Amino acid sequence: MEITGGTKHFMAFGGGLRFCVGTDLSKVLMATFIHCLKFRHFRWKTVKGGNIMRTPGLSFPDGFHIQLFPKN
User: Fold this and answer.
1) How close are the terminal C-alpha atoms of the chain, in Å?
2) How crowded is residue 13: how many other Cβ atoms within 10 Å of its Cβ?
3) Residue 14 pLDDT level (bands cut at 50, 70, 90)
4) Do 12 and 35 form a contact (C-beta atoms < 8 A)?
5) How far apart are CA 47 and CA 7, in angstroms?
6) Which of 20, 25, 50, 65 falls 20 to 30 Å from 34 in CA-CA distance?
């Protein structure tokens, strides 16, 4: 078996025997941060992308670009 380098896919919290113990906490913290960003301080508009591929994690093959506008 020949190893030619790393994969281009990233699984944020690993998997298998070395699964990250802080996975759920970090997901809750990121969801809280995005909620506060979106609903308290900014509004956003999708510029391009947004096609979601549901694999073991979420993947955006075309990227997900947004434009932020401050709330008045």
Assistant:
1) 59
2) 14
3) low
4) no
5) 28
6) 20
The DSSP bridge partners found for residue 58 are 54
Secondary element (H or E) of residue 35: helix 23-36
Residues of 14-50 as b/e, b for ≥16 C-beta within 10 angstroms? eeeeeeeeeeeeeeeeeeeeeeeeeeeeeeeeeeeee
Q: What is the maximal distance between C-alpha atoms in the chain?
A: 59
pLDDT per residue as tens digits for the range 26-66: 888 988 888 888 788 888 888 887 788 887 777 788 888 88
Give phi and psi for 53, each to the nearest 5: -110, 120
